[in-house]
Amino acid sequence: MADSQQKRALQRKILHVDADSFYASVEMRERPELRGKAIAVGGNADRRGVIATSSYEARKFGVRSAMASSRALVLCPQLIIVAPRFELYKKVSRQFHQIFRDYSALIEPLSLDEAFLDVSECPRCCGSATRMAEEILARVRDELQLTVSAGVAPNKFLAKVASDWNKPNGVFTIPPNEVAQFVRNLPVSKINGVGKVTAENLQKMGVVTCADLQAVPLEDLLKRFGKYGKRLSEVARGIDNRPVQPSRVRKSISVEHTFPEDIAELPAMLEAMDGLVEELGQRFAKIEQHYFPVKRVVKIKYRDFTQTTLEEAIGTSGENWCDAEHFRRLIAAAWPRGAKPVRLLGAGLRLQPSTRKDSPQLPLV
Ligand code: DCP
Ligand code: MG
Question: Which residues are catalytic?
Answer without folding.
Answer: 114
